[in-house]
Amino acid sequence: MQQVPAIRLRSLNAAPVNPDGDFVLYWMTAFRRPFFNFALQWAVQRAVELRKPLLILEALRCDYPFASDRLHRFVLDGMAANERHFAGRPCLYYPYVEDHRGEGAGLLAALAGSACLVVADDSPAFFLPRMLLSAAGRVEVALEAVDGNGILPLRAADHDYPTAYAFRRFLQKVLRGHLLDAPLADPLSAVKLPGLEALPSEIAGRWPRAGRELLQGTAAALAALPIDHRVPVVETRGGFTAAGEALELFVEERLPLYAERRSEPEQRVTSELSPYLHFGHIGSHQVLGQVCEKEGWDIGRLSPESRGKRSGWWGLSPSAEAFADQLVTWRELGFNMCAFRSDCDRYSSLPDWARQTLGQHRDDFRPYRYALADFEQGRTHDPLWNAAQAQLVREGRMHNYLRMLWGKKILEWSESPEAALRIMLELNDRYALDGRDPNSLSGIFWCLGRYDRAWGPQRPIFGKIRYMSSENTARKFSLKGFLADYGPAG
Question: Selecting from 3.40.50.2000, 1.10.579.10, 3.10.20.30, 2.60.120.260, what CATH number does the domain 347-486 have?
Answer without folding.
Answer: 1.10.579.10
